[in-house]
């Protein structure tokens, strides 16, 4: 449906939500993202309940950050991607909300990884930590390296020129690639929270022992 085709490796998700880039179907994309956010809200409650036996504070922070990230994600669907005018006094308000959503969710995932490490082999299976760590640390490392290269290219073009020549024509240079990798990582993270965290009945039985 996207004009001239949509290549997820090079285009950011915001292109789908933009009336300029996707004039006929941007509302459909926005509704899909809002629905995604609404369906993620119960996971905040789930994390709080399941991680609490390891750390009540960590569980609350992870759940709260996930909830803030979901709220920012939903709000971002109602802000048109544009750079000309400031919204609520903030230029690029759409990008601000998108980065806030990604940052909150990433912090929630990191704290959840810490809880999984702390409770490994005692409350949680070791596989939970390794899966969560893989889908959290690796995409974050890729995004940080990509942003560092872009920043280096702006402040020191001469030093960054060889790096640009190597990576510029690869998917690793484009933010859209890392956005979709991050979206897939969040999906796997939530699948781990669903299928690998023990149920409340099991935790109650272990505590009674």
Largest sheet: none
The percentage of residues in β strands lies in under 5%
* Helix share bin: over 70%
C-alpha geometry: globular
Q: What is the tally of beta strands?
A: 0
Structural class: mainly alpha
The number of domains is 1
Summarize the topology:
Elements: H1 14-17, H2 26-51, H3 56-76, H4 93-118, H5 126-155, H6 157-167, H7 175-195, H8 200-208
Helix pairs in contact: 2-3, 3-4, 4-5, 5-6, 5-7
Overview of the structural elements:
With 209 residues, the protein is mainly alpha-helical. It is 71% helix and 0% strand. Helix 4 (93-118) packs antiparallel against helix 5 (126-155) and helix 5 (126-155) packs antiparallel against helix 7 (175-195). The longest helix is centred in the last third of the chain and has 30 residues, at 126-155. The protein starts with 13 loop residues before the first helix and ends with a helix.
């Amino acid at each position: 449906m996207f004009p001239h085709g949509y290549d997820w490796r090079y285009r950011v998700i915001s292109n789908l939500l933009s009336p300029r880039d996707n004039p006929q179907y941007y509302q459909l994309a926005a509704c899909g993202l809002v629905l995604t956010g609404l369906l993620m809200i119960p996971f905040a409650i789930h994390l709080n309940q399941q991680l609490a036996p390891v750390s009540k504070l960590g569980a609350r922070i992870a759940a709260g950050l996930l909830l803030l990230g979901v709220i920012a994600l939903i709000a971002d669907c109602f802000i048109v991607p544009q750079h000309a005018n400031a919204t609520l006094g903030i230029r690029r308000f759409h990008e601000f909300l998108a980065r806030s959503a990604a940052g909150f969710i990433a912090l929630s995932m990191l704290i959840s990884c810490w809880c999984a490490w702390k409770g490994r082999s005692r409350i949680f299976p070791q596989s939970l930590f390794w899966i969560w760590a893989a889908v959290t640390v690796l995409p974050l490392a890729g995004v940080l390296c990509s942003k560092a290269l872009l920043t280096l290219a702006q402040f020191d073009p001469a030093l960054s020129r060889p790096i640009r020549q190597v990576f510029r024509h690869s998917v690793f240079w484009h933010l859209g690639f890392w956005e979709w990798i991050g979206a897939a990582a969040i999906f796997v993270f939530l699948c781990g929270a669903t299928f690998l965290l023990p149920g409340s009945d099991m935790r109650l039985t272990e505590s009674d022992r």
